[in-house]
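Entry 12.
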Amino acid sequence: MMRALGIDCGTECTGYGVVEIDARDELRCISYGGITFVRHAHMAEKLRTIFESLTRVIEEHRPDQVAIEDVFYAVNVKSALKLGQARGVAMLAAASKGLPVAEFAPLSIKSAVVGYGKAEKQQVQLMVARLLRLEEIPQPADAADALAIAICDLHTAATLRRQAAGR
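Predicted 3D structure (tokens):
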């Protein structure tokens, strides 16, 4: 049994999702949600909220590892810097609890969940709901993305374990 916390960082909403995989490679959704902020909050306040909220999620759900989306190309430099700050605080929350942090490119996440690296956002969300046997697509959308990141991490870890066992 392995449990992963996926985090989809954002400065408007940071999504999180906790997923477990068992010995039969069956996935189970443990928890998900979105960390939102007061509309005009200062960046320092948003970062504190991300840190404190993720720390609570880690303490409550005790994941074995944390996965986060890797930096992607951004048109707006200011937005990219803010996203980098949010990612750093999310990584700090995990590291402060002694958890390993894996980073995955959006292409890898989509490939792991849908089987196609250029899948549309809606396709990813539908597959997340299907893989986790959820009755509806998780909301907010950032939470569905975070669940996809956790699924990618668990599938990657399971593949690496199988490869190591075959040696």
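Annotation: The first strand starts at residue 2 and ends at 8. DSSP finds five helices and five strands in the chain.
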